[in-house]
Amino acid sequence: MSVEAVMLTEFPEGYTVFFGADAKMIMTPRSVEHSSTIRSLQIDTLALGRHAKVTSDVYLDFPADENSAPDLAILREDAHKQGKRYSFEDVLLIAEVVSVSSARKDYDDCTAKYGRYGIPIYLVVDPYAAEVVVHTQPTGTGYIAAYTHPYGTGKIPIDLADGRTFTLDLDELPRPETEAGAR
């Protein structure tokens, strides 16, 4: 797509459009629920330390050009960039927040991909179902274990492979507003 064509294109409301150096255009839906859920997850990571290596929407290198920019990733403390990016091998936990348009990708495609590459913990955070699915024990096709935790059921400690604990506060995850504006 030429620069002129991009300038004249009307992108759908509620989408963020990224243009990569590799000539890829990525359109991602954004909503208040999506954004505030990522923020809530980021706040929970502060207990790991102010300078913990945590990224949001930042590309990570995976093999076979399957790079991803997960909604949230917690990296090993000793992780170092390889070139411009961190490697999937540095990842301890990935969280993806479900959007209306991304449910299949987050529940199915990402579960298979992150398991295949050995990401130790994968969280599917779904504000619309008001639940978090914690996937552990990665395999070549996904994960052996998956535990579903409803919003509003307290804090769950998640042990990271480096000995730290990430505590997810299920009481503080935002829920979509109804049309009447109530929670």
Question: Care to describe what's here?
Answer:
- The structure is a single chain.
- Helix content is 19%, strand content 33%.
- It has helices at 3-8, 32-45, 103-116; strands at residues 15-19, 25-29, 54-55, 60-61, 72-75, 86-87, 91-97, 121-126, 131-139, 142-150, 155-159, 165-169.
- The strands form 4 sheets. Strands 3-5-7-8-9-10 form a 6-stranded mixed sheet. It has a two-stranded antiparallel sheet with strand order 1-2.
- It starts with a helix and ends in a 14-residue tail after the last strand.
Indicate the topology:
Blueprint: H1 3-8, E1 15-19, E2 25-29, H2 32-45, E3 54-55, E4 60-61, E5 72-75, E6 86-87, E7 91-97, H3 103-116, E8 121-126, E9 131-139, E10 142-150, E11 155-159, E12 165-169
**Biggest sheet features:** 6 strands, mixed
Distance between the termini: 42 Å
Low-confidence stretches: 179-183
Portion in strands: 25-35%
Mean pLDDT: 86
Percentage of residues assigned to helices: 10-25%
Overall geometric form: globular
**Distinct helical segment count:** 3
